[in-house]
Amino acid sequence: MSDAMSNAARYRARRDAGESAEAEPENDAPMVLNSQNKAEFVETAIQLAIRRGEFDNLPGAGKPLEGLGTHHDPDWWIRRKIETENLSGLGPPALMLRVEDRELDGELDQLGREDDVRGVLEDFNRRVIEARRQLLGGPPVVTQPRDVEAEVRAWRERRASRHPDAGAEATTDAEPRRRWWRR
C-alpha cells in the first residue's frame, strides 16, 4: 500500500470512529506498513464496520452454502456458475466431443434433409480428427469418427419407422420433383 493510500485509510478509520480528523498519530514519523500493520489495519476496519452494523441482515447470513454436497469438490463454484448461467460448450475438446457423440443421433433425427445430415456428420468427423491432432494435453480423444454412409442409412431407417410416407422424400434425387402446374 502506498503512503497516500494508507494515510487516507487511517483518516477514514479515525473519522468513522468519531475521532477528530485533525488528530495526528503520537509520533511524527510516517508509519511503515508491513504485513503485521496491514493485518491490524484491516482487522480494525472490519471491527468498525461490524460496530456500525454494515454486516447486519446480509442475504444468506448464518445459512450454509447451498449445493455443496457431501464430498469435497474444489471446482464447486465454477460448476454452479455454469449451471446458473446455463453455459454450454465449455471444456476440453475430448469431453465435449464425447457429449456431442452421445447426443448426435437425436440431433440428426431432427433434421429433414439428407444433405443436412451429411453436413453435420462431416463437420463432426472433421472436429474429431482435428482434436486428435492437437497436443494441448488434457484427456485423450477416444471418440471415433462416424461412417457417413452408415449413419445416413440409419437416419433413413429411423425416419421411415417414424414417418412411413417420408422415407421416399428423404432421398435426394438428381432432379427435384416438378409440380404439375410448372411444366
* Structural class by SSE content: mainly alpha
- How many strands appear in the DSSP assignment? 0
Gyration radius, rounded: 33 Å
Helical content (DSSP H or I, runs of 4+): 40-55%
**Which geometry do the CA atoms define?**
elongated
Relative strand content: under 5%
Q: SSE order, as H and E?
A: HHHHHHH
Poorly predicted runs are none
- Number of DSSP helical runs: 7
Task: Quote the distance from N terminus to C terminus.
Answer: 85 Å
Largest sheet: none
Q: Which whole number gives the mean pLDDT? A: 78
Which helices and strands appear, and what pairs or packs with what?
Layout: H1 3-17, H2 35-52, H3 76-85, H4 93-109, H5 114-133, H6 148-162, H7 167-170
Helix pairs in contact: 1-2, 4-5, 5-6
How would you describe this structure to a colleague?
- Residues 174-183 have a biased composition (Basic and acidic residues).
- Residues 42-108 form the DnaJ homologue subfamily C member 28 conserved domain.
- By secondary structure, the chain is mostly helical.
- Among the domains are: 3-52, no CATH class; 93-170.
- Helix content is 54%, strand content 0%.
- The protein contains 7 helices and no strands.
- The protein has helices spanning 3-17, 35-52, 76-85, 93-109, 114-133, 148-162, 167-170.
- Helix 4 packs antiparallel against helix 5 (114-133).
- The longest helix is centred in the C-terminal third of the chain and has 20 residues, at 114-133.
- The protein is elongated, with a radius of gyration of 33 Å.
